[in-house]
Write a structure and sequence with these properties.
Blueprint lengths: L2 E2 L6 E4 L4 E4 L3 E6 L2 E3 L6 E4 L15 E4 L7 E2 L2 E2 L7 E4 L5 E5 L5 E2 L1
Antiparallel strand pairs: 1-12, 2-3, 2-11, 3-6, 4-5, 6-7, 7-10, 8-9
């Protein structure tokens, strides 16, 4: 089933409410006037509430996507969509896509 494509202005958070932002985007492809994000794009996380080592495993600092669209690519890279999964470093938890555009979809 098709799912909305992730774009640079989407609201993405780590599981501990930290705000995640893409380091770079694909500037050639846009949805809703905003650049899309591909699987190779690293995300940075700010404001993670997970305690640092000795009290916890965190906080989340970066995230890398582990799944993306199979059929839709931009610049040879699979695009990210609402159902894409990511792993945050150092704790190994994920990201949550809270809000993204809803018109353009991928599988």
């Amino acid at each position: 089933m098709a799912s909305p494509i992730l774009h640079a202005g989407a609201t993405v958070q780590c599981l501990h409410a930290g705000q995640a932002q893409p380091v770079m985007t694909n500037l050639r492809v846009k949805v809703g006037g905003q650049a899309i994000v591909t699987q190779s794009c690293m995300y940075t996380v700010a404001g993670c509430t997970l305690p640092p080592p000795t009290a916890g495993n965190g906080p989340c600092v970066t995230a890398q996507w582990t799944s993306a669209a199979v059929r839709v690519k931009a610049g040879g890279e699979p695009v990210l969509f609402r159902d894409s999964q990511a792993v945050c470093a150092p704790p190994g938890t994920g990201l949550t896509i809270v809000q993204t555009q809803m018109r353009a979809k991928a599988t």
